[in-house]
Amino acid sequence: MFVVRYVVPATIVLAGAIVMAFGSEVDLEGGAGIVSAGVAVYLVNWLYRVSAYGDREREDEEAARVYLGTHGHWPDQRPAQPGGRAPKSR
pTM of the entire structure? Predict the structure, then answer.
């Protein structure tokens, strides 16, 4: 995954920079297009990771709500003491 996320976009950007450095004015514009393509590949990978992270957060929240419904308290809280009083916070 590291190669797809970072090495491929970096290689594309480097190729564009090389084309811009050793070419004419037309090659300068073409190299800029290649650099833009490399940046676009990186940003698409980043957007995918951000969207996948949001899905994990929603799944964690749903699991916590199921736990609350089953046990009567959130997973990161201590259960209430008998008699209905919650324990004092420290």
Answer: 0.60
How many structural domains comprise the chain?
Answer: 1
Domain hosting 51: range is 2-71
- Angle separating helix axes 25-71 and 8-22, nearest 10 degrees: 160
pLDDT digits (tens, 9 = 90+) for 34-84: 999 999 999 999 999 888 877 778 888 889 899 888 888 888 888 776 655
Count of CB atoms situated within 10 Å of the CB of 32: 14
Instruction: Compute the half-sphere exposure of residue 53: CA atoms within 13 Å on the CB side of its CA.
Output: 6
Contact predicate 34/10, CB 8 Å:
no
Is 58 among the domain residues?
yes
